[in-house]
């Protein structure tokens, strides 16, 4: 399918998928684009989607970007999920180690040039892995941030050059936690310690009552996204 055909298909399906359940969207996505992958960051939305994928299409590749800077709790969540679902997450890592990064760009690049740090440890590895696929699935939701408010359930990702599915784009935080509780899904214990959004340890803090759920990401800077989602 060439780009024009994909754009036409997306146009036709966008409205229909808007009203479909996440499981229906995933089923249609994996049937239409067998060469598809899911990007898992082990946040609440992503553990929901891993659980759904295991029920709908357990052979679909699931990868995670290992920045080398995740919380220990995040790595433990990965290990527990691999054991529960008998699956192996594809580990995608940066081209340079944290030590090489410090030598080449200076210590604590996440403080001096966080965009460059994210480019090295997230955007380049994501670009590399996505170049192998025709479509990807993400856990982004419209109410997570103004930058995500217009996310469609299916769209063409011009940044990375493939079709993108956001099956729970219209879910609320409550929907996510209802699914986790009713399906006994493993989740990152940091969520119980006031970390609604979890990224690298260097750039994530707990939020205070009443704060925006993403206020704990790159706190103190004007950065709000890694560069993975437009
Ligand atoms: Fe670096 Fe922080 Fe981005 Fe992680 S979130 S890659 S530590 S700047």
UniProtKB/TrEMBL annotation:
Its EC number is 1.8.4.10. Keywords: Cytoplasm, Iron, Iron-sulfur, Metal-binding, Oxidoreductase. Pathway: Sulfur metabolism; hydrogen sulfide biosynthesis; sulfite from sulfate. GO terms for molecular function: 4 iron, 4 sulfur cluster binding; adenylyl-sulfate reductase (thioredoxin) activity; metal ion binding; phosphoadenylyl-sulfate reductase (thioredoxin) activity. It is found in: Cytoplasm. It is an enzyme of class 1 (oxidoreductase). It catalyses: [thioredoxin]-disulfide + sulfite + AMP + 2 H(+) = adenosine 5'-phosphosulfate + [thioredoxin]-dithiol. The keyword S-adenosyl-L-methionine does not apply. Residues 36-206 form the Phosphoadenosine phosphosulphate reductase domain. Gene3D superfamilies: HUPs. Its cofactor is [4Fe-4S] cluster. [4Fe-4S] cluster binds at residues 117-118, 200, 203. InterPro entries: APS_reductase, PAPS/APS_Rdtase, PAPS_reduct_dom, Rossmann-like_a/b/a_fold. It holds the Pfam family PAPS_reduct. One of its GO terms (biological process) is sulfate assimilation, phosphoadenylyl sulfate reduction by phosphoadenylyl-sulfate reductase (thioredoxin). One of its GO terms (cellular component) is cytoplasm. Binds 1 [4Fe-4S] cluster per subunit. The active site is at residue 226. Its main location: cytoplasm. Belongs to the PAPS reductase family. CysH subfamily. Catalyzes the formation of sulfite from adenosine 5'-phosphosulfate (APS) using thioredoxin as an electron donor. PANTHER family: PHOSPHOADENOSINE PHOSPHOSULFATE REDUCTASE. This is Adenosine 5'-phosphosulfate reductase.
